[in-house]
TrEMBL record:
Protein name in UniProt: Uncharacterized protein
GO BP terms, alphabetized: post-translational protein targeting to endoplasmic reticulum membrane
Pfam families linked: HbpS-like
PANTHER family in the record: PTHR28255, UPF0303 PROTEIN YBR137W
Gene Ontology, cellular component aspect: TRC complex
Domain of life: Eukaryota
Amino acid sequence: MTDYAAQIAELTDQEARLRLPTFDFDAAFGIGSAIRSAFLQAHETGCASGVEGIVISIQLFSGHTLFSAAVGHAPSIGPDNWGWIQRKVNTVRRFGKSSFLVGRTLLAKGRDLDYLGPEYAAHGGAFPIHIRGNTTGAIGAIAVSGLSQEEDHRLVVDAIAAAIQAMSLRQGGEPKA
């Protein structure tokens, strides 16, 4: 039996910790590029065996798409992946939480992952963009589709954590993530 309470606690902690000191076009490009590089490295070393590609999107809730990429082999990625991206981003926009956290919360309540309807995907892979000190909520989402929901989520979280650490070091502070 899956321990949803432990997963929910871990995911909630991630969201509390992973708040960027700043966010702009360069930060979006850096995070998106880091996700792309991590996938390619895992693919080359065989860690992503059987997976031929992913799609990445970084969107602001104001409507701007700051980063968008398809990585891997074309036959394995396509319109369905972009549909998953948008549905995951819709979930983050609606709930202000990662799509994975929303999904685990639904499962803990005995609900199906499709409970929210066709325009939402409560599957891992989209994470809210929070700015440290901003109390108004998430400003956007970083999303990946193409791997398992756990791996999609991990790729995004690892890239955000690395970006926070790099930004903190550039600003002369201690790493925060």
